[in-house]
Amino acid sequence: MIHTIKKAITVFSMVVFGSALLYNCEPDADTLGEQLFLDGAAQGNEKSFDVTAFNINNNDSIRSDASKLTYAVLGAFSEGQFGMQKASYLTQLRLPLYDPDFGTNAVVDSVVLVMKPRYATDSVTTNTVDDNYTYTTAADGSVNAKKVVNTYPVLKFGKTKRTFNLRVHEVNTFLKGASDSVKSNQTFDIGADLGSKQFKGYVSSIAITKDDGGAALFTASTPGIRIPLDKTFFQNKIIAKKDQPELQDASNFIRYFKGIRISVDEQDGYLFQFSPNDMDLIMYYKYDKTENGTTTRPQTTFSFPLGSANTHVGQYEYNRTASAWAAATIGNQNNGAPKLFLQGMGGPSIGIKIPDATINQLKQLYQNDKAAIISAKVRIYTDPMDWNNNFAKPREFTILQKYKDLTSSTPDKTRTGFTSDILNLAGSNNYSIYKIFDYDKNPTYYDFIVTKSVKDLVETSADNTTKYFRIDMGSFQTNSDGISLVGYKFTTTPYNTNRAVFVGSQAGNPNRVQLKVIYGTK
Q1: Rounded to 5 degrees, what are φ and ψ at 152?
Q2: What start and end residues bound the annotated signal peptide (predicted)?
Q3: Cα(327)–Cα(92) distance, rounded to whole angstroms?
Q4: Mean of pLDDT values over 296-325
């Protein structure tokens, strides 16, 4: 055991803060207790303790406003364990300038909404759609060229071979300001149907290359989805309001044209992410232009900013009828639950409670046998039967600590924060918030590192104020330095599309949730 632990300590591993490290074999100790093994000063022992693992019901609701959505989610996905989950997206739009002059006799030709989903950049399919294309440049005039389409699959969670009908509606509810808090299950008054598009799960970009030498003459921007919108609506809603109060300033405009909602018609398929700050809504129109007595009708564009100044809302709907989650044991902190359900975007969380008896047992070892905790981790396994499928297993988690609020006069009131490990050990060699094992196998298991948290409970005189640990799907968001965390409330959970079922507190099941402790004695 001592040799194995020393070997685990000295193996080089790359620290990825806020994500998992993948190992093919299980390490026995972390660097917190490395000094105990120097010069053979201690002997290591490993012991497993039962914990209470329970489901937390978040009532299918989570904050999903602009401050929470680095990415937005669209789509629908239905399966037997969690039921149906459907994601829509709402946003405001603004004018690029107020009190605009569209010119004389302005008429809208077309309007398009451009979305840019996340896609697999390493899975491109290239097709030449025109071998005899002529491209005109100012320098060279007409050039013989090829028109090439590069197609990429969108990154999806769910059933990948499905077609969605993407639909855009006007929103009739005022969406307030970008800093206002909005819950994902909030309802909105939806108005006119503005347009739709069939979407098969792929995005494309166009490139034009020179026949002679293959040099690129033109490359389109990031691949995206172009949804055509109702030009008559924009003629009446925008062009016809020229010189009127509705277009005079931002405050008037966002109360006049309150926003748009993007959704899918279907109830099953997949979920995909896109950047809410990287969308375009472009209106193409013609107007009368008179120069030297000659009137022409040039085409111009008018783009509505959809970026960070606007309110963004992820709207999530659930139908849990007849799902396993609908019949699950929820919130039992005394006995736990046999199955644990974990889902992003307002779905269930997992609670892990270390019983007082376990803490007392470890305290006895510490006091009587001079046993010092070297490593402590909560291990959870995916359920090999109820989550045996082709869906990608999760790679991103957060873990927080629920404390008894000793400053409150309300009994059993709790507060939430980072675990002691995250607060004290982030950035240390060989430390990660959690580690993943057997990712390509069934079951996969995960170790959540709680060494410092458990040491505080056992090796100090402080009262056990920790109520339980809370595990969520998603990852902590980092600051611009890419290392330090923004705060425990800032995670990717509001738009994380993953879910999984885990083995819970099942007596006699070797894969039940357990606390794995390595301790050393002199």
Answers
A1: -130, 145
A2: 1-22
A3: 39
A4: 95
